[in-house]
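> forwarded from #structure-qc
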C-alpha cells in the first residue's frame, strides 16, 4: 500500500479505483441490511426449530444458509453468534460456515477470489466460510493441464491480501488449507498432482496446511460430490488399509505424515484422548510424529469447545511428555474457532497442571500475531484478558507452527 503523500495524480486515481473495487464487492455480496432485533428473532426461530430435531447441528447447517441472499454474510455470522449463545451445545460451526461460502460463490463463481474477504474478521467457525468459497467454486470441474496453468495466478493470490482484505497468517493458513481441498477436485483426486499444486502455489510456511487439506478432503467427505470424488478413486483408504494407502507417499515423509494424521476420523478415541498415542505411533520420523500430536490435540480442542474440563481431561490421557503440547494446542484451537473467545482459551490453559499452565499462556501470547494479525481489536482484547504480568509481552513475537 502506498503510504507517502498522495500528490501524484496516479496514486489518487489508483486509490479511488481500489476503493471502487472494494465497495463493488461489498455491495454485491453484503448490502442486505437486517436490523439487530430481526437478527435476534431469526436466531430464536432457528433455535426453536432445531432443538426439536434429532441432530440440531445438521438443522442449523440447513436453516442458516437458507437465509441467504436475503440476509447479508456478516449478519448471517451474527445470527450464528446468537445461536451459539442460546445453544451452548452448538459451538463447532465450521461445516455451517462451509455451506454459507458455497451459497455465496454460487451467485457468481468467477468472482470467487473477491468473495473470500467476506470471511468474518474474528475467524468465527474456524474460517469455514473460506473453505466453502474455495471448494464451491471448482467442485464440479476437473481442469486439464493447460487450464490449470491459466488459473495458477488466481490460486497464488486467493489467500494473500487483496481488495482491502489483510488476512492474518492464521487466515492465510486456513485459506491455503481450503485450497488443498480444491486441488483434489480439479485434479479428479489425483492426490500426487494435488500435492504438487500445493508446492507450486504456496510458500514454505503454508505447504503443510495445504497438504493436510488434500488428505482431509478424502477422509472427511460432507457433500454428495465429495463422496462421488472418493468413489472413483482406484484405491480408497479404510480403517484397515490406511497405512498401506499412505505408504504410496513414502518417498516424501511430509506427504506420508499428512496422509496418516488426517485419517483420524477412521480411528477411535481421538476426541477423548484415549486413542491419540496409538494413532500417532508409526509416523515416518520424529517431526511428523510431533505434527500428528499437534493435529490430534487441535481436534480435541475443536471437539471440546465450551467445555474446557473435557479438553483438560483428554490432555491428561496423553503421554506425560505430550501434555504440554496438548494444552497449548487445544487452547489455540479455541481461539482459531473464534478469536473473541480469549477468556475461554486462557481458562483452558489455567486447568493445566503445574508449570504447563504458564507455558500454555506464554505460547498463546507468542502465537498471537499468527492468530490475530497485528493491531487488531481481537488481539487487544486477548492481551487484556491475560494475567497482568504477561500483557506487556503479548503479541510481540510469534513461534513457528
Amino acid at each position: 500500500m502506498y503510504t507517502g503523500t498522495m500528490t501524484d495524480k496516479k496514486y489518487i486515481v489508483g486509490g479511488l479505483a481500489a476503493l471502487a473495487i472494494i465497495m463493488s464487492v461489498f455491495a454485491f455480496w453484503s448490502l442486505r441490511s437486517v436490523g439487530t432485533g430481526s437478527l435476534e428473532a431469526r436466531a430464536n426461530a432457528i433455535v426453536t426449530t432445531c432443538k426439536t430435531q434429532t441432530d440440531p447441528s445438521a438443522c442449523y447447517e440447513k436453516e442458516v444458509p437458507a437465509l441467504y441472499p436475503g440476509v447479508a454474510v456478516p449478519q448471517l455470522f451474527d445470527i450464528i453468534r446468537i445461536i451459539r449463545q442460546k445453544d451452548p451445545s452448538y459451538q463447532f460451526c465450521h461445516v455451517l460456515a462451509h455451506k454459507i461460502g458455497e451459497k455465496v460463490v454460487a451467485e457468481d463463481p468467477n468472482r470467487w477470489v473477491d468473495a473470500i474477504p467476506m470471511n468474518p474478521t474474528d475467524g468465527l467457525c474456524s474460517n469455514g466460510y473460506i473453505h466453502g468459497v474455495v471448494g464451491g467454486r471448482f467442485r464440479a470441474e476437473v481442469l486439464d493441464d493447460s487450464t490449470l496453468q491459466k488459473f495458477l495466478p488466481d490460486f497464488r493470490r486467493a489467500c494473500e491480501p487483496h481488495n482491502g482484505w489483510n488476512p492474518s497468517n492464521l487466515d492465510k493458513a486456513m485459506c491455503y488449507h481450503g485450497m488443498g481441498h480444491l486441488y483434489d477436485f480439479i485434479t479428479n483426486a489425483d492426490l500426487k498432482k494435488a500435492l504438487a499444486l500445493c508446492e507450486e502455489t504456496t510458500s514454505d510456511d503454508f505447504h503443510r496446511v495445504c497438504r493436510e487439506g488434500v488428505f482431509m478432503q478424502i477422509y472427511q467427505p460432507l457433500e454428495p460430490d465429495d463422496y462421488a470424488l472418493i468413489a472413483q478413486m482406484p484405491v480408497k483408504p479404510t480403517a484397515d488399509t490406511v497405512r498401506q494407502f499412505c505408504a504410496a507417499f513414502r518417498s516424501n515423509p511430509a506427504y506420508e505424515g499428512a496422509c496418516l494424521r488426517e485419517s483420524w476420523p477412521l480411528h477411535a478415541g481421538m476426541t477423548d484422548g484415549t486413542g491419540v498415542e496409538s494413532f500417532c505411533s508409526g509416523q515416518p520420523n520424529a517431526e511428523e510424529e510431533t505434527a500428528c500430536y499437534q493435529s490430534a490435540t487441535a481436534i480435541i480442542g475443536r471437539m471440546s469447545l465450551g467445555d474446557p474440563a473435557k479438553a483438560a481431561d483428554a490432555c491428561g490421557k496423553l503421554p506425560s511428555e505430550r501434555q504440554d503440547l496438548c494444552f497449548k494446542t487445544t487452547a489455540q484451537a479455541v481461539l482459531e474457532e473464534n478469536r473473541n473467545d480469549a477468556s475461554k482459551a486462557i481458562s483452558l490453559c489455567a486447568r493445566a497442571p503445574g508449570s504447563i499452565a504458564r507455558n500454555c499462556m506464554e505460547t498463546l501470547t507468542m502465537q498471537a500475531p499468527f492468530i490475530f494479525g497485528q493491531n487488531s481489536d481481537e488481539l487487544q482484547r486477548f492481551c487484556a484478558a491475560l494475567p497482568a504480568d504477561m500483557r506487556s509481552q503479548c503479541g510481540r513475537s510469534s513461534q513457528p507452527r
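QC bot note: The two ends are 28 Å apart (CA to CA). Residues 137-266 form one domain.
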